[in-house]
Amino acid sequence: MAKLNQLNITETTDWNDGRLGRKRHIMDPLADQTVAAIMAKKEVNTINHLFESIVLDKIALPESAPIELRTYFEQSAIFPEWADPDLIALGQQIYLRHGIWIGLLLCYKSLPECYACANGAEVLHRTARLNEDHGSLKVFSRRIAETAQFVVFAMSPDGLEAKGKGLRAAQKVRLIHAVIRYYLKQNHWDAEKYGEPINQEDLAGTLMSFSALIIEGLEIIGIQFEPVELEAYMHCWRVIGHVMGLDEDMIPQNSADAFKLGHAILDKEIAPSKNAQELVKALRDFQNEKSKPILGADSNTALLRLMMGKEVSDLLAVPPISSKKINKMKWKMTFIGNIGEVLDKSLVFSMLLQFFTKMGLTLMLRRMSNSSIINFYLPKSLTQDWGNKKVRL
């Protein structure tokens, strides 16, 4: 509470369209230069072995790692001066208490609202990281699971420590972004139309959808954070944004600023897109398959429309459903959420709740995919569709 009093929790930034528009043409110099230097060696076997080692080795780099990669991991692990370990620890504890709900909202709010931003969705569709192999549910499940794993690793206690899984996961995902940018820009990417691939605005929008907009989803079902909890939770994501390569002037100052940034990007970038609708269709197929027998197709549709609202749901071609079913879904979620909030007020029951949350998150990830790591590899669409069949990262 003392640290909360030291924070500026009211001042917000002017996230105007001009400012955000300029950020669509800025990427990530550190990660991009690292990947370019490694690719310039043109030693396919060495590159494959190197990235395979990154996947398997969770802490140390192999001795054969080039200096560029060692420099990248050293520099990207440096936290900003404003990072506060106590606020990070509290934010991660809050995540642990609400992890099941946050995991649910990732699929029913965060990801589909990201798809609603048509220019950013173009990257996902072009690389086919979410629907390669002609929409294979197995591949799609792995992609969703990797996203969920990233959030779990980063937001679990100690995840952002020097040897934490969350820190290494953020560094790896940042490199994955750079690899995708590298190949997209070599294969007819229209930067004038879409902006640079995985640019600063898209990265900020994604991180806000995973953080600030998640909190809005929790509020829909009656779960509200105390001010200190809210700022601590957002502080974690501010630090994650820094590690992920977000420019300092694109990191919101506080929770109010994060909400403002998230909505500014969504309002600016939301647009009709067949590619986005295809991504949401794949997401709905995934939900209908993986949520059995707890939720059926109608429940999944009702939950999507509850969390995103009519405008965004219509834009993404989510099937219509009666308001009665949406309200019933809201009542069920609020009822269950209220029980959890009551238990969370008790020290004994909150410890039990955290234990079951851990178990629930583990089961959720296993349900999504059998893999326990975030794969560092080049999407098949980049190796097959563009003729680079020898390069598999």
UniProtKB/TrEMBL annotation:
Biological source species: Algoriphagus halophytocola
InterPro entries: Lcp-like (IPR037473), MPAB/Lcp_cat_dom (IPR018713)
Entries under Pfam families matching the protein: MPAB_Lcp_cat
Name listed for the protein in its UniProt record: DUF2236 domain-containing protein
Domain ER-bound oxygenase mpaB/mpaB'/Rubber oxygenase catalytic: 132-320
